[in-house]
Amino acid sequence: MKSKQSGIILIIVFLALAILLILASYFLSSTVLESELSRKEKQGLRAYYLAEAGIGEAIWRLKNDDIWKNNFIEDCGWESEVFVRENIFFPNSSYQVQVKNSDCAEGEITATSTLSFNDGEIIKKAVKAKVSKSLITLTNDSAIFSGGESQNITISASKIIINKGNIFSNNILNIKDGSEISAFDNLETEELEGQVLAASNLIIGDSVLDEVEAKCAKNICTEKCKGYQIGITSCPPDSVEAPIVDFDSVGNPNSLKNQAQEKENAGECEVLCNGIQCSAKCVFSESQFGDLLWEAGLLGTLTLNNDITYIDGGMELKGGQQLTVNGILAVKGTVDIWMEAPQLTIDESDKACPSGLLVKDKINFGKLSIYSSLTATGTIYAEEEIRFEGVLNNFNIVGGILAKKITFDSLSQGMNITLDNERVLNALNLSLLAGSSQPSAGYSSEITVEDWQEIY
Amino acid sequence: MVGAIRPLCRESQNMFFYIINPFRKESGKSGGGFTLTETLVILAIFAIVIVGISSTLFLAQKGLAEGRDLRDINHEGRKILTRMSREIRQTKEIVTELPGVDSGKDNPSEIEFEDGHTPSPYEYLGSDFYYIRYLIYSSDGQSPYQLKRQYRVYCLDDCEVCEKYYSWTEEQVHPCNLEENIIGSHIADLEFWGAGLINVNVSLEKGNKKLNLKTKISGRGL
Fold first, then answer.
1. Residue boundaries of the structural domains of chain A
2. Which residue from A38, A198, A314, A417 has the highest number of Cβ atoms inside 10 Å of its Cβ?
3. Which residues of A touch B85 (CB under 8 A)?
4. Is there a contact between A197 and A167 (Cβ–Cβ < 8 Å)?
């Protein structure tokens, strides 16, 4: 009986010890595991920031290395050489980086870092970043731009709201008679938009410009103007000549007329009168186009489904006539949109396709009309002058307005313009006169990082 | 009390006493229990096992604490560099004069730069220039440091009455902090150098665990 009791105690003691040993070894192994995980995390972190250093260096080279800078902008399919940096921060460490363009001035940087250890362990991390450069336009990011011989902009008794763009006059900008101007910055770009710019004087008479980012001219210089300093009252922007569109040069196959003729010859033209095809032409004389408008009727709609429609003369849209342009309407003469309630709609949903109203002479919009309407997704351009007059019912533009001289008179119902540089450039680049200043002044020096992520 | 236990319980009672005192000799009998040698051997084994287990537990505890320290500084390091990189990447201008190459102990341990993010959280002030400053700080000037982030503007007037704000390059202006926050701790060293491409070296320390992180940042407007 006694020996049996001793055995039990021994077993109990050994069981207790065994349990304690199991617990201890469990704690020990989990501690070792935790410690190993923390160590791995530490090395992973060092490797990650090493890879980020590679991305940082690549961005720096895209801005400062001439070969990289040019290739990134000019060669849309460019792939840089893989450059490697060794032992740059830590012994036995390296990173290698490559840039691959997806388009001109758009690409992806991939950086892979490697940390090697004496026990043969190797840790690698890879980081990708999408980068791009934005286009700088000659028109100074201006939704309303005048640059040419007359160069003035006059705004009288009008309410104008400009989103994401500036107003630029290459000479005098005169805002008067109770006008209200608002201009707002585009928060997605580094450049400051929402500026009122005049290469000469900015004259403000009995008008409100409270909601603008900056006023920069020969006679005024507010804080956000380029070159602003305390006590300085003059900081005009540089003078800029407007690009000139080639409407009808015989020798230029890219003139608007020749391009429209080529489309017509290829059978790619379609004009609808109230939804029914009434012409398969792209090039019209003034009278031919006038006849089409009358065929559509006073309250009917003429729809131009052509990439380019060219009128070899002027155009008059009046009464209740409604014109829808799904592309470019190029007019050699003067365009008058007036009397009663005409409607012009320029609509192109595909941003890559040029759209707008390009006129070689003048555009007179709204005279003697009360319910005129203009909705444009594209560029309104006149080589000479654009006049907007009278009370307008609906006036929205996504794109820009460019001419040598621009006048806004009595637009008391308001006019909304949202700058879209891409649409402006697409329309102007379609056909430029030889020797014209280029609408695009190149790319921004800044690199925009759109996406930054670790890859596995 | 023992004598009061009923006979049926006698065996159980012996067992109980044996458990609480296994070395006692049973009365009236010789050769029961353990010899001194047995007792000493048992005690020695018991002591070795206890020491072994307790040192294992101690090691485990120490390892856990060290692991926790390493995790803490990993977390701090990531947090600090992520925030700093994001803000330096957007900047237009570096205020602090940085050496072009790594100058070891001469590298500044602080950096100030213009905030490139728009809109600024203090946009309502109407300033065109907002600045961010990172610096290390400890009450006794010794490591470990805390990392402070100051958000500031430059004024001509006293900070309390300042309503007009300027670029740091204007003459006679002085900084006014709009906010000051501690955004990191356990920092042993912080260094910046490089022109255009900013190099950052941050060392962290907690217990006997150390972490050194280095990277390069290209400022958008630099």
1. 2-135+446-455, 165-240, 242-438
2. A198
3. 52
4. yes
